[in-house]
Amino acid sequence: MLQKTTESLVEKFLKKEEKINKRITLLDEQIAEKKNAIQEEKKNLVTLEIDEETGETDVEERDPKQVRKNIKNLETEIAELNDMREAYADVLASLDISDKEKQKIKEAALKEQAERSQKLDEKTKEMSEIDAQIKELEEQKKQAEAERDFMSSDQNKIEHRAIKKILKYIEPRHESIKRSHKDNYIECWLHDGDLEQHFEIPREKQKGLQIIERTSVPSDRVEEQSDPGMHQQHV
């Protein structure tokens, strides 16, 4: 609104200035013509006076008195033109906005100031809300990071503790699992990995020991077989 009002006034004053400047230019041209005419008349007057003194006057020559009168008239006209030019120049210099137009500009400016102030307050409020949201998100992020770190530090331990309770039912050789390998064993078991690497004694050797235990003869029977006499006495 203010921009439109000021642009309209500028256009209005530019048109006034253009018209006044044209009038001043025209007056300057007229004054210059009058001054040139005076110079010519003065030359004519000098010529007439010289001819009159020398007795070389011509019947067709003008009367010096008439020339002087003409010069005086031209000077009067120039004075009038200068007065007119000065008046136009004064108007040009004193171009002013009316009180009504001033009030209109003031109202438009105050309205735009109020609107901008309101928008500024709204934007400030919006920024505060965004800051609050950012703070809340940062708190949520911090909480999520803490939970992630806790889960990362306790990764698989909950499942492992639960499985350890029934490990002896899952793996008959559970007592042969290396003490430091139980968690690795459970993880390997969950993902169908190689389990033998986690035992103190691999399965092949354990089978060998079992065969030896099964095929070995008790010590008392060995003694009986090695001493037949004792067997007969017993009979």
Describe the model.
Residues 209-235 have low confidence and may be disordered. The protein starts with a helix and ends with a helix. It has helices spanning 2-54, 64-93, 99-153, 157-164, 167-170, 182-190, 203-215, 219-226, 228-234. With 235 residues, the protein is mainly α. Among the domains are: 2-96, no CATH class; 173-234, no CATH class. The chain is rod-shaped, with a radius of gyration of 63 Å. The chain contains 9 helices and no strands. α1 (2-54) runs antiparallel to α2, α1 (2-54) crosses α3 (99-153) and α4 (157-164) crosses α6.
Q: Strand share of the residues?
A: under 5%
- Shape annotation: rod-shaped
Roughly how many Å apart are the termini? 136 Å
Query: How many extended strands?
Result: 0
Identify the notable features of this structure and list them briefly.
single chain, 235 residues, mainly alpha, 9 helices, disordered C terminus
Quick summary:
This protein has 235 residues and is mostly helical. The protein is built from nine helices and no strands.
List the helices and strands and how they pair.
Blueprint: H1 2-54, H2 64-93, H3 99-153, H4 157-164, H5 167-170, H6 182-190, H7 203-215, H8 219-226, H9 228-234
Helix pairs in contact: 1-2, 1-3, 4-6
